[in-house]
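Category: protein sequence paired with discrete backbone structure
Discipline: computational structural biology
Format: plain text, a pair of labelled lines
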Amino acid sequence: MITCGFIGLGLIGGSIARAFHQNRADIRIVACDPDENTRRLALSEGIADAVSGQPSEILSDCDFIFLCAPVSHNDENLKKALQFCGPDCILTDVGSVKAPICRQIEALGLQNRFIGGHPMAGSERIGFANSKASLLENAYYIMAPAPFVPAGKVETFRSLVLSAGAIPLLVDPQTHDYITAAVSHLPHLIAASLVNLVREHDGPDGLMKSIAAGGFKDITRIASSSPVMWQQICLTNADNLSALLQDYIRSLQALEEKLREKDADPLFSFFESARVYRDSFIDAGSGPIKKVYSIRVDIPDEAGSLAAVATLLALNGISIKNIGIAHNREAEEGVLAIEFYEESSISRAVRLLTDRGYTTHLNR
């Protein structure tokens, strides 16, 4: 029997716990969460075998402890957990930046006991009540073990990730932070800066905002994310973001020079190289500045699920431009991403799928 402890049983912690409960009969779950309703619900639904309002002696038998509270509480919760857990217990987190927690792990001499974790899934809804066992299905789950964690412990943790239905990716913590800075954190900075640029240049009549649809709306959608969360991410991954932002600024300056000189060939190469690389993405269906007509759908992780959806739409005359599993779902819900040729197909597809019991999510 493996005992997994959770400090923080919100959307992510709750979904991991639910997946373990559903898929592994050999896992015992204990949970610490300050919210009384969360604790009551976890017990009544049979997800947790024991609960407490804060880290306590219920963590004493844990083989793994998941730090799932907000990142700002990690240091405090880590130290509290160490008061109760045994010397062989592996600690892990679910944050999108690894540098701060890794510094704490090194300072405490725990480099043989920490495996950084980052499940690439999420939802606009928060809390244990909105967690679900399927949230991590077919989503990437980055594993960033500290340097001296025994290989057997890493493999056992990998089996836990697989039992949650996720796809484990093993990287070192520094690489993790650099990659996420480039493909997740920097895009949020750029999206927010584009929105602010239009805000500053819009006229009193708000005409720019009124016609801001299509490409602009698509590439700035993530600017609607939580400002508190992204403030904290920027502060904790500042070095990587600063270096990448400098490179990005230099590329924009070079582009501005090409525009001033009306240099046709380099401009074509600029757009062509971006198009080719973007279209090589696994879930790419169109370039990033085109209007995209798409939805996300929750489907079970079982054989034939994708084909069943595709067949249902095809039999009802709805043409699909692109369909595939979305492995990175931090900013969007729904395992299956479906792109259509026409906007009118969205409402028809949603109605049809909803009538058949599927849960659909519209892209904002």
